[in-house]
Amino acid sequence: MSSTRFNSFSIVLLLLFFSYSTLIYSVSSESNHKYNAPIINIDFLEGHTIDMETTISGEILYADNINSVSWELVDSSGSRGFFDITDDLLFRSSGGANISNFQINIDPYSIGPCSCLIVVSLTIEGGEPIIFSRSIFIESPSFPDWIAGPTLKIHNTPNSWASGVVEIFGISSTYSGNDAELYFSITNSTGVNCLDEEIEDFTSVEHERIYEILWSSGTFSTNISFSHLEDGPYQLTMFSNDTQTGLFADDCIPIKVDNTEPDVIINGKNTVFESGDLLYFDGSSTTDFPWGIEGMTYVWSVSRISDLSIENIIVFSGQSPLSPGIQSNYSGIYQVSLNVVDRAGNRGSDTFSFEIINMQPEARLLINSEEVSNGNELQMDKNSTISIDASLSYDTENDQETLRYIWRINNVPLYEGISREIYWPDTDSDRFLLSLEVVDDDSETSIISVLVVDSENTSSPIFTIILFFSAAVFLSYAANKHRNTDTQSDIPKWT
């Protein structure tokens, strides 16, 4: 076939080509080009034929941080030539973007007839290799009877993950320009690479015809189902058959099939006491047989459950199976959820309920700088001031600063604060009951009571017992009321 097959119509197609390229890149929402991956273009149509020495021009858009660039001519037998063109790149700037130009020289006399792929590869700092392919048919005057078979290249990344139905895309061209028939075969693999076996006749291999194919200028995309397969390594082999010549081409990529969601397990404590410490939950017992847990994404969420609603506290995602630190300074019932997404996109989940238990405060009382115990009887001068101090009372670190100190005389709340001086109640009685109630932010209470007696009089033991009993009943009622109401106290406060 002569190159004259491509006349003025070819020129039109060449112009159209510049608006189209096969791209392998990542797109950023930022307009700044520095976030764009390099894009490879060549001024050569998919499936074009040459019969004379030809120079093919190409360019790399966003050519920043390029380590190396090479091109290779490949057919079914392997490489027909490899060329490193890193040092031959010509750099220029256009519209603020760096562009590098290169050339590919092909001589049919030295190469011979070939149904080949031009494969351009580049590497960048810290990134995966970027590969660009085009089909080319090379005629050689030395082989006038040569019959060209089709080309085929799968563009999916080798060792990619497959779950359910996967879109497979690539290029395939025939010498005649007609669309080829495509077939595929999925076989077990012992490793992550395709077996290097030459297939002489694809009809001898178990295969399936692909009927639903989207073709565009030699590029194709189709969907292949892996949902019926058990998890494990496989190889996907595709065949391109030229019905006019009966010749075929094949290509293979290894595939990791993962149709099973991860088995998610949360480990942690069901109950903890309220404190200022951080709580952690562990999802490292999660499994994803047979692939293991490396590279999975963990999405943690923690909610506080009340009588009326569920309050989301934290949502966190990352590749660590350890949860973020959860504050334990508020008592209540909580639920932690873990969603795990494996590398194939399968999602598994688990939920775990736990309770943060409030610690009851401990009331401690100093009178005139001396600590007293619950139920003590103190003899004091009726005409002197009395120093009362609750500063030795304590709770967990997170509640200490918010404690309330309520003082009662004869069961009547009179003051709120941590310490002060008081006087003998304005009464003719020669004794009174002094009580301290310490309340935390969960309305849990602790109460201590002492009987203060005029030092010039003695008390009746029976009277003292009755007074403490009645006080105990009243204060128990008062404490229960604290737990069941949420109103601001009108007790006078002091600093």
Q: Care to describe what's here?
A:
This protein has 4 helices and 34 strands. The protein is mainly β. It folds into 4 domains: 1-148, Immunoglobulin-like (Sandwich); 157-259, Immunoglobulin-like; 271-357, Sandwich (Immunoglobulin-like), CATH 2.60.40; 365-484, Immunoglobulin-like (Sandwich). Strands 2-9-8-4-5 form a 5-stranded mixed beta sheet, with no helix packed on it. It starts with 7 loop residues before the first helix and ends in an 11-residue tail after the last helix. Residues 1-34 have low confidence and may be disordered.
Q: Brief overview, please?
A:
This protein is 8% helix and 43% strand.
Helix and strand layout, with pairings?
Layout: H1 8-17, E1 39-42, E2 48-50, E3 54-61, E4 66-75, E5 78-84, E6 90-94, E7 97-106, H2 108-111, E8 114-124, E9 130-138, E10 153-154, E11 160-162, E12 165-171, E13 181-188, E14 208-210, E15 214-216, E16 219-225, E17 232-241, E18 248-257, E19 271-273, E20 278-279, E21 297-305, E22 310-318, E23 326-327, E24 332-341, E25 347-357, E26 365-367, E27 370-372, E28 377-380, E29 386-389, H3 397-400, E30 404-409, E31 412-416, E32 419-422, E33 431-439, E34 445-454, H4 461-484
Parallel strand pairs: 2-9, 11-18, 19-25, 28-34
Antiparallel strand pairs: 1-3, 3-7, 4-5, 4-8, 6-7, 8-9, 10-12, 12-16, 13-14, 13-17, 15-16, 17-18, 20-23, 21-22, 21-24, 24-25, 26-27, 26-29, 29-32, 30-31, 30-33, 33-34
